[in-house]
Design goal:
three-stranded parallel sheet; 7% strand; 196 residues; single chain; mainly alpha
Length: 196
């Protein structure tokens, strides 16, 4: 947590999904006091107003662990001073791109498309519009007031952030190599290019 303390004035924490530490703690039914301790430690470092928990906008019937986490969060939000935001992690831009995403995952995981692990693409992981978000959350059983609150908090977080990304340029990290590696590359770089 030392690095969080170092940059605390510039950070906002968005915590979510079932594979996060706290999400796992909820799913594994750790003691509520332990979960509270972890969250309060994060709130102490980053300040309460900079720690948000994400209500993940996915069909909770397809991904039941999200229902468990989201229900716990709503139940404990007031006691922890948690602001809940809605989040929709996406892997592809539009619903029509889901199959392409699945094909790419099969290539990555060395699977045949017919043998693919459908767990990897459960839910609809495209960029949701506000209407999509409202529809999914309503289908999951959240009230209009809750949905309004999640969306208002999400907008408030977005308005706090100042991210300036200059477009039209390549943003790759620069790695420095030892002189031996640099010399080896210089000697063999032409052999590394495959000509068709």
């Amino acid at each position: 947590y030392a690095i969080l303390r170092e940059y605390q004035s510039d950070l906002v924490a968005l915590i979510g999904w079932h594979n996060s530490r706290l999400g796992q703690a909820i799913l594994q039914q750790e003691e509520t006091t332990k979960i509270y301790e972890r969250l309060r430690m994060l709130q102490d470092i980053l300040w309460v107003e900079n720690v948000y928990w994400e209500i993940i906008v996915q069909d909770e019937y397809l991904i039941p662990e999200l229902k468990t986490i989201n229900t716990w969060l709503i139940k404990h939000a007031a006691a922890l001073g948690l602001q809940l935001v809605c989040a929709s992690a996406f892997n592809y831009p539009t619903p029509e791109d889901k199959e392409l995403c699945e094909i790419l995952l099969c290539i990555k995981e060395w699977q045949r498309y017919s043998d693919r692990d459908k767990q990897l693409t459960r839910g609809e992981r495209y960029m949701h519009s506000e209407e999509d978000i409202t529809h999914i959350l309503t289908k999951n059983g959240y009230s209009a007031a809750q949905i309004e609150w999640f969306i208002a908090n999400t907008i408030a977080v977005a308005e706090q952030l100042n991210v300036d990304i200059k477009l039209g340029q390549m943003l790759f990290p620069k790695y420095t190599s030892s002189p031996e590696i640099t010399a080896l590359y210089a000697t063999h770089k032409d052999e590394l290019v495959v000509h068709a």
